[in-house]
Amino acid sequence: MASDRRVVVTGLGLATPIGIGAEAFWDALLGMECGIRRVEAFDPGGLAAQIAGELPKFSIGDYIPKTYRKNNKVMSRDTRIAVICAHQAAKDAALNTACLVERGEAQGPPNVNPARFGANIGAGLVCADLPELAGALNTAVDEQTGRFSHHKWGREGMANLTPLWLLKFLPNMLACHVTIVHDAQAPSNTITCGETSSHLAIGEAFRTIARGAADVCICGGAESKLNPMAMARPLLLNRLNTGANGHPESACRPFGRDSAGTVASEGGGLVILEDLEHARARGARIYCEMAGFGAGSNTTSWSKPDPSGAAISLALTNALADAGVNAEQIKLIVPFGTGVRAYDVSESAGWRRAFGDHLGKVHAVVTKGLIGTNGAGSGAIDFATAVLALYHNTVPPSANTDGLLADCTLPFATNEAVDANAEYALTLAYALSGSQIAALVIRKYGE
Amino acid sequence: MARRTVITGMGWVTPLGHDIESVWRRMLNGDSGVEKTTVFDASEYPTTFCAQVRDFDPRAFLGSRWQSHAGASRNTQFALAAAELAWRDAGLADIAAVDPTRVGIYLGGGEGPIDFDNFAEAAIKGCRDDAGQLTALDTTRWARCAMQVLDPMRELEQDPNLAASHLAVRFNAQGPNLNTLTACAASTQAIGEAMHMIRHGDADLVITGGTHSMIHPLGVTGFNRLTVLSTRNDSVQTASRPFDRHRDGFVLGEGAGIVILEDLEHAGNRGAAICGEVAGYGSTADAFRITDIHEQGRGAIAAMQTAMESAGVGIADVDYISAHGTGTVDNDKIETLAIRTLFGERAAKIPISSIKSMVGHLIAAAGVVELISCVLAIRDGVVPPTINCHTPDPHCDLDYVANEGRKIPVGVALSNSFGFGGQNDTLVVKRFDG
Q1: Contact predicate B426/B303, CB 8 Å
Q2: First to last CA, chain B
Q3: Among A335, A298, A289, A311, which residue's Cα sits nearest to residue A427?
């Protein structure tokens, strides 16, 4: 709409298996460093898939004010990842938030008003800490039957869980901790739409700033699949590659004709979106401008993709229309491509429907070959990839994209980076469980 | 001029029943939906009661369509039923009337109840042989058992976006589809964001609201450990007592509410009957503490204020407030303080009620059920009571419509929802005046 304010990207905060921070991630992406290896977070011996994309070791104290450290015990791993991303994003944007001021990392006076600072953070179904919960449940076994007893649990067993146990696993806790640590009091939301969450959260934050309800929003998503329950669930659905435990580097093959499933992962991304005038007034570095947001829904099934790709095509078309461009103006795309065959087939069909012959003329990048699929945080990492590619005029190579599905015409650079020469970039995400689809268009920033 | 958003259909599944009119009559009558928990054996839990949805059969709402949704979680079943009612109420049963690409979905849907028995079996078998002890989990043993006993589709159906996904399939809604889960504020947030989705032109019609059931062993355990549930086990129907001095926590409820929110012009073009106008929405974060509400109600005040500004209504225009009113000591005290601070002298003159006193706290679905009650209050010129509100609390000194509904004209109502962790959302609903 003509009256809407312009919105720009001024900060990127990433936590990925190949690096924490946008710069580390970008360098590793260009260098094709693989973040997938045998699981170390727990003993994966009983699971058919024993590899995953795990974050490098970190200490949460490096990302929060000292006074907040006591809250570490009520943070799930998902929340910790979001908190890391938030710190990195605020720092990258040179935003003097409460967290950075208190940590002594911000120079100068506050440059964001807490009442105009919002958050929109995608989250997954945060898994309970299995060893903690299982241990507690085990105290409620009835000696006679050998089975779980509600009576015993109610009388004594549940007391083995800490009083704040539930608070750790509410999906909105990612946003709550981030908004507390950085003092963001404006509109706050938590989108829980599986792998689509980040795109929807970024799209909604874009709208929130455009209509004037906030000047700055921290948005994106984070999730960790690095616990036994979160790996068992996609295994039950035959979505993980179980035949690559000995060669993790080639395990995840987006759109591959020999793909055998994706690889579980953890990570996320939070980005700073900002009203253009606000960013200019504080002299912020501008990566690019938000140009369009479009969403849609698969209406053929909530558990299987639509082979026709019609709904994916509609979401892409909606995003293009919102940006006021046609497919021919798009030169850079970041498809979602997880390596789960039925979804790759559907996505590939969706791009063909929306782009037709022009698809052969774009540059495409897919990130999952190096980092796997983490759920709610995957889309934000892809979005950041698009932002960095546009900003640096560089299309990173896409690992494991030699040998694509027969009808997949997505042009990836398989070995080395190439120049982007793009004015616009388009990125897509969709839920593997559920129907949600969303796409975002960004534009090179120019006065 | 922004597009206006109106409600053209409503449906709910609640502890007091499953159709708009009979539940509304029971609310005005001050009935309680609270009883002993029967979904699972909670007889030795600290809290043995809740507000359960009873006599619910999804087939009664979905007919032959039920077959294809048969694996749906309890949450999703509630949402499908409530949406079916709302869709019919909106006169949309003839699906050819709307362009499916312009129909969106925005739910505040909770996660589906955990598959507890199988989960517990795997957890216990995964622990080393010392049953009865607080012991270390052997993940290898756990995995072997879990992969045998857990069911793939039952796991998939627990994802919080699944109710919204089922609705997309059922109603061929090809437009934007979102689910928010901001704890107890979720469905209020969903409706507010749906309003913006329509205002911006991302959709012409949105199926919105929420659904949730945390009446399962881990849900009740979690809330009991937080000591936020009432433990008045000897008098369960008086346990939910918002704003009463002897309140001791909330009563867990379950259910769903769905409203059809529509661009005014779109509704007019198809000749739809209009139930009310969603005119404003405010969302804020306390950004204070994970475990406590901001002492001065900073976020709550800002949410109400933003909602009223966006609706273009002032202090003098508000006729009724549907409170978050959970019945916890802190919520009711601080919500009262927030209303007092914002409305000043007028605060005591505004009738405020908490229908949680009757239906319990539907968590993610609480807000939409309360919003529907506001629409009905406007329609009928009568506001529902806060039951079990007998003993005045010096910290809660406003007009809570104690124990008996009241006839009073309502043109503008506020509906508040505040979630754990400091998520505050307020909607403004107005009588539709053409």
Answers
A1: yes
A2: 15
A3: A335
Pairing of strands B5-13, B35-36: unpaired
Task: Report CA torsion sign: A350, A355, A360, A361.
Answer: negative
Q: Supply the angle between the helices B329-343 and B298-311 in degrees, to the nearest 10.
A: 50
Mutate to test the interface with A, among B5, B45, B182, B224 (most CBs of A within 10 A): B182
Contact flag B226-A163 (C-beta cutoff 8 Å): yes
ipTM for the whole complex: 0.97
- pLDDT of A1 above 60: no
**CA torsion, ordered B239, B242, B246, B247, to nearest 10 deg:** 60
* Residue A49 clears pLDDT 70, i.e. is over it: yes
Compute φ and ψ for A338, nearest 5 degrees: -100, -20
Alpha helices in B282-420 (DSSP H): 298-311, 329-343, 356-359, 366-380
* Model confidence pLDDT, tens digit, residues B289-307: 998 999 999 999 999 999 9
Nearest to B101 among A43, A139, A314 (CB): A314
SS3 B133: coil
Closest CA to B174 of A436, A317, A191, A199: A436
Whether B128 has a pLDDT exceeding 80, the answer reads no
Which DSSP helix (H) or strand (E) runs through A276? helix A276-281
Average pLDDT over residues B324-335: 98
Residue A167 touches partner B, C-beta closer than 8 Å: yes
pLDDT digits (tens, 9 = 90+) for A68-91: 999 999 999 999 999 999 999 999
Contact A434 B162 (CB under 8 A): yes
Give 3-state DSSP helix, strand, coil % of chain A, rounded to 5.
40, 20, 40
Backbone angles phi, psi at B328, to 5 degrees: -85, 150
As a whole number, mean pLDDT of residues B69-98 equals 93
Rounded-to-integer distance, Cα A6 and Cα A9, Å: 10
Question: Hey, what are B165's tokens?
Answer: 């996904």
**Residue that the structure tokens 């727990």 belong to:** A42
* Nearest-CB residue to B291 (from A48, A164, A302): A164
Q: Are A228 and A47 in contact (CB under 8 A)?
A: yes
- Mean pLDDT (whole number) for A18-32: 98
Q: Which of B137, B193, B426 to mutate to test the interface with A (most CBs of A within 10 A)?
A: B137
Mean pLDDT of all residues in B355-377: 98
- DSSP lists the bridge partners of residue B49 as B36
Interface contact flag, A435 B168, Cβ < 8 Å: yes
- For residue B130, is pLDDT > 70? no
Q: Which domains does chain A have, with CATH numbers?
A: 7-126+170-443 (3.40.47.10), 130-165 (no CATH)
In terms of CATH, what superfamily is B5-113+160-430?
Thiolase/Chalcone synthase (3.40.47.10)
Cβ distance of A297 and B177 shorter than 8 Å: yes
pTM of the model: 0.98
Where do the domains of chain B lie? 5-113+160-430, 116-150
Phi/psi class of residue B215: alpha, beta or left (left: φ > 0; alpha: ψ in -120 to 50)? beta
In 3-state terms chain B splits into helix, strand, coil percentages (rounded to 5) of 40, 20, 40
**pLDDT, tens digit (0-9, with 9 covering 90-100), for A219-266:** 999 999 999 999 999 999 999 999 999 999 999 999 999 999 999 999
Q: Is B240 helix (H, G, I), strand (E, B) or coil?
A: coil
Between positions 334 and 363 of A, the ones with CB within 8 A of B are: none
- Comparing B372 with B95, the larger pLDDT belongs to B372
A-chain residue closest to B193, CA distance: A204
Bridge partners (DSSP) listed for residue B427: B281, B415
In this structure, the dihedral spanned by the alpha carbons of residues A321, A323, A325 and A328, taken in order and rounded to 10 degrees, is: -100
According to the model, what pLDDT value does residue A2 have?
A: 42
Least confident of A292-296, B125-129, B143-147, B189-193: B125-129
